[in-house]
Every structure is written in structure tokens, then in C-alpha cells.
């Protein structure tokens, strides 16, 4: 009987240690994921994602892929800021988002303006293309390029879905954004105001 009680006691200790280990590992994993996939500029993202009917997790995923949250980022192609908008795209978007003020490309370094117009652009693309990956291709490669791909039966059989993405850079970009999106969705929950509800 004593031996049986000793075995039960050892099993209880082992179970408690396993539970404790799981708790600490889970906490460290959450900390790692939140460090790797941060919610920077959360007030602006929440506001603009909600206004444009976008999933905030997607907005964060694009920002992470485009600039890794560096508001001063500038690409070789001249794309600027957090969501890497080109001056030409920015000028075109200003005709869609009426404002009393005419902005210049230097304004793209402002997180508030960059995210406002980047979210507007994403919203236009997600409304134009029914497939998430297609919209992301257009964000990276341009609307004209993607429309040409959709008209090519070797690239798109139905004119809606891209069976392949011809540009390697765009293919890699879409994969990165969608992987980011998957991880943001696993790591955070958002309310209807685009705010994180995680502790």
C-alpha cells in the first residue's frame, strides 16, 4: 500500500512539473511570437483598418513584409515608408481619398499618412480582386501587371485566380505576407474596432 501511495505521489509531482513546464514554455512562445510579430502603430492601424473594412492582422502583415515597421524605409524602386507606397501610387490614391491638403512624397514618411493611404490601397485591391493572393500580387507588382496576368490563359484559366505568379519577387512577397497573416491570426485576436483584445 505504501509503495502504491509513493507511486501516486511521484506521478502527481511529475504531472505538476509537466504542467509547470508547459505553462512556462507556452508563455515564452507567446512572448517570442509577440516580439517577432509586433503591433506597432496600433492606434493608426486600428482606425484605418476599421475605416477601410480590412482585417488588422492583414495590415500588420503587409507592414511587416514591406518595411518591418521602419517608417523611414525606402526601396530601390522609390517606394517609401511603412507600407512602401510609390509617389505615383500615392498621387493616384489622393484622387480617391479627398483631402483639403495636397501631400508630397515626403509625407509618406509619416506613419499616419502612410498607413491611411496604404490601407486605402489595400481596400481598393481587396474589393477589385476576389482572391486574397491576387490582391497582394497587385499591391506588389501593380494593377496593370496583374490584370495582364489574369487575361493570359497560361497564367489564369478562369481570369480570376492566378494559377501561377510569374514574378519570383511577387511570388515570394505573397508567401511572406500570407505567412505573416497566419502568425498574426494565431497570436492575436482583434475586436470590431481593430484593437487587440489579448492581454
UniProtKB/TrEMBL annotation:
Q: Does the keyword Lyase apply?
A: yes
Q: Which residues cross the membrane?
A: 7-25
Entries under CDD domains matching the protein: LT_Slt70-like
Q: Which Pfam families match?
A: SLT
Q: Which molecular-function annotation in GO is an example for this chain?
A: lyase activity
Q: Residue ranges of the Transglycosylase SLT domain?
A: 45-153
Q: Which UniProt keywords are present, listed alphabetically?
A: Lyase, Membrane, Transmembrane, Transmembrane helix
EC number(s) given by UniProt: 4.2.2.-
What Gene3D superfamilies is this protein classified in? Answer: 1.10.530.10
InterPro entries, A to Z: Lysozyme-like_dom_sf, Transglycosylase_SLT_dom_1
Q: Which PANTHER family match?
A: MEMBRANE-BOUND LYTIC MUREIN TRANSGLYCOSYLASE C, SOLUBLE LYTIC MUREIN TRANSGLYCOSYLASE-RELATED
What is the designated name of this protein?
A: Soluble lytic murein transglycosylase
**Which organism is this protein's natural source?**
Caproiciproducens galactitolivorans
Amino acid at each position: 500500500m505504501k509503495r502504491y501511495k509513493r507511486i501516486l505521489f511521484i506521478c502527481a509531482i511529475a504531472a505538476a512539473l509537466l504542467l509547470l513546464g508547459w505553462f512556462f514554455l507556452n508563455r515564452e512562445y507567446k512572448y517570442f511570437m509577440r516580439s517577432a510579430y509586433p503591433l506597432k502603430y496600433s492606434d493608426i492601424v486600428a482606425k484605418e483598418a476599421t475605416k477601410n473594412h480590412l482585417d488588422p492582422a492583414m495590415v500588420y502583415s503587409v507592414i511587416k513584409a514591406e518595411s518591418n515597421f521602419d517608417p523611414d524605409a525606402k526601396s530601390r524602386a522609390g517606394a517609401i515608408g511603412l507600407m512602401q507606397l510609390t509617389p505615383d501610387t500615392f498621387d493616384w490614391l489622393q484622387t480617391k481619398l479627398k483631402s483639403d491638403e495636397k501631400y508630397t512624397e515626403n509625407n509618406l514618411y509619416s506613419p499616419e499618412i502612410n498607413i491611411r493611404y496604404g490601407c486605402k490601397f489595400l481596400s481598393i485591391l481587396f474589393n477589385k480582386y476576389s482572391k486574397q493572393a491576387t490582391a497582394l500580387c497587385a499591391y506588389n507588382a501593380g494593377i496593370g501587371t496583374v490584370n495582364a496576368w489574369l487575361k493570359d490563359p497560361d497564367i489564369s484559366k478562369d481570369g480570376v485566380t492566378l494559377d501561377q505568379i510569374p514574378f519570383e519577387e511577387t511570388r515570394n512577397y505573397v508567401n511572406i505576407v500570407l505567412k505573416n497573416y497566419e502568425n498574426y491570426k494565431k497570436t492575436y485576436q482583434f475586436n470590431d474596432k481593430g484593437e487587440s483584445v489579448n492581454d
